[in-house]
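Forwarding the complex inputs:
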Amino acid sequence: MSRESPPSPRGAHTHRPTSGVRWRAWARHHRTMAVDSGRRLLRRPLGSLLTMLAIAIALVLPAGLWLTLDSARLLDAELEESATLTAYLEIGIEEGEAGRIEEALAAQEGVAGTRLITAAEGMAEFQQALGLRDALTRLESNPLPASVVVRPADPDPEAVRKLAETLEGIPGVDEVRLDLAWLERLRHLAELGQRFTLALGVLFGLGVLLVVGNTIRLAVENRRQEIEVVTLIGATHAFVRRPFLYSGAWFGLGGGLLAWGLLTLGSDWLSAPVSALAASYGASFHLPRLGPEGSTILLGCSTLLGWLGAWIAVNRHLAEIRPR
Amino acid sequence: MIAFEHVGKRYGGRFEALANIDFRVRRGEMVFLTGHSGAGKSSLLRLIMRLERPSRGRVRVAGHDIDRLHHSQIPFYRRQIGVVFQDHQLLFDRSIFHNVALPLEIQGVEHREAARRVRASLDKVGLLHREAALPIELSGGEQQRVGIARAVVNKPALLLADEPTGNLDPQLSADIMTLFEDFNRIGTTVMVASHDLALIARLRHRTLRLHDGRLVADEEVA
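Prediction (whole assembly, two chains):
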C-alpha cells in the first residue's frame, strides 16, 4: 500500500514520497553506488590492485595455516585410530601360555582387539626391519619376549593410560608400553597451532581493517568537497556513507579472490614435496584445497572485513567533515 | 517563515558573531541581508541552515524550533531549503545536468521525473543547452546560474543565497537578482546576503542591515 507519511509532530516536515517509491529509490541508489564505486576502483587499477594485494597477503597466512591444521586434524584422527598398546609378556612364556594370556587380555573391558606376536615372529620382524639377520642368528636363544598388540576401544589418551595400568596387573604381562607420548605431543602442538592461527587471524584481520580503513580515509579526503556539498543539500549520513562502504566491500572481495588464488597456487606448488615428506613417515597426507565451503567463508570474511574497515573509517572521518 | 528571537552566537566562547538578533520574515517575502564583511551575514545564514546552533535565543523556521531537531531530521529539514553559495559549490567531476540533479538524487526522485525537473530548472536559468557540459567549461556567471538551478530544482519553500553576485560584473549581478525576484514572484521566500549596496538599493526590497553582529536597521520598502 502506498501512503503519504504524516508530517512529523515536531521538527520540519517535507514532502515525502510514498514508501514504495522510497524503497525503490533506496534500492536504486544501492545499485548505482555499487556499480559506481566499482568503477572508481577500476579507474585506478594499479592502486586498487595494490590495496587488494595487501589484503590478500594478510589473509593468506592465517587461511593457509587454518587449512593445514584442518587437515592435520584429520591426520590426528587417523593416528588416534591406529593408537595401540603393546603388552610384553614375561620372557620364556610358552606359545600356548601366550595364547591364553592374549585371551585374558582380549576379555578385558575397553579392549577392541588383540594380536599375538610370538617370540619367534617378533624375532623375524626384527631381523627383517633391521637387516641384521647374520648378527642375530648368532644369538643362542631368542632374547625377545612374546607380545600382544592391544587395540583400545576408546582412543582417548587418558582411557588408554588407565587400560594400560589394568593390563599390567594381569599375570604373565611384564610391561605395557603405550606410545602415546608422541601422540599427545602432536595434539598439544596442534592445539598450539590452532591458537596461534586464531591469534594470527585476529591480528591479520585487524591488518585488513587498517589497510581498507586507510584507503577509504584517503577516498573520503579526496571527495571532501562532494561530501560537504551533499550534506549541505540534505544528504543523510547513510547516503554519504554508502559509496565508501561499497568501495570497502569491493576491496575486501578483490583481496579475498586474490587470497584464494594465492592459496590455490601455493597448495599446488607445495603439494608434491609435502606428500612425499608425509609418505616418508608412512602417512598419507595431502595438502588440502579450499572447497566450495572454505572459499565461501574466505570471500565472505574478506568482504565483511572490507566493509567493516570502510565503515569505521567513514564514520571517523565524516564526523570531522563539517560544511563550511 | 523565519523568526529569530533574541539570537546570539559566540564562537569559541569569546568572539561574538551575532548578538540579540530579532526579526521575522513572512512567507513569500524577499529580504536582503547586508552589512560589511564579518558583520555576521554568513553566520546568520548558517544558523538558518542549521549548520550552527545559536548560543542563545531561538531560531524558528516554518514554525519549528530548529535547535530542537534531532540530528537524523536535519537532512530532511535542509531539503526544504535551497542554498546558493558565493563559490557555487559545484562538483567538477560531473556534468551540469548531474550537478543540478544532485538534490533529487539525494531524495531518491525517480530518473525520468528527475530529468524533467532538472531540465525545467536549467531552462529557467537559461542553460538548458549546456546540460552536458562540465562546470569548468562555464563562465563564472553561468556557474552561478547552475548553482541557482540546483538550489531551486527541488522547489524549496525557502531560498537562501550567500553573496551570490560576489564575483560577477554589474550586468550579470543584476541578471542573477532578477532570477531571485522571479522565484519570489511564484511564492518562494527568498533571503539574499549581499554587500552590493547599489544593486540592493535599486531592487527595492526589505533590507536587514547587520553591523558587528547586531541588527542595526530593518528597512521595509513600500
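The mean pLDDT of chain B is 90.
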